[in-house]
Design goal:
This protein has 78 residues and is α+β, with helices and mostly antiparallel strands. It has two helices and six strands, in the order βββαβββα. The radius of gyration is 12 Å and the shape is globular.
Length: 78
């Protein structure tokens, strides 16, 4: 059975499909997010708030969250 993790503001992702949870402030991550947006592979789950975490999924999609990476990682491990 799949395990789901709450990533903020009513948004949920499959925890088993998360490859990485990274901070969005680094230049390589910003480029990755920009490229994903251009390719239509970015999902913005911030509800208009500041992006604090970028989730890289197995299928190459990028999910943007307004929660801290540490918070999401803790929830995914529970």
């Amino acid at each position: 059975m799949s395990k789901f993790v709450h990533i903020g503001y009513g948004n949920i992702v499959n925890a088993e499909r998360i490859n990485a949870i990274v901070n969005p402030d680094a230049a390589p991550v910003k480029r990755m997010v920009h490229t994903a947006r251009e390719e239509g592979k970015a999902i913005d789950a911030t509800q208009g708030r500041k992006t604090k975490a970028v989730l890289v999924m197995e299928d190459g999609q990028i999910v943007l969250s307004a929660l801290l990476p540490e918070t999401i990682a803790t929830r995914a491990q529970e």
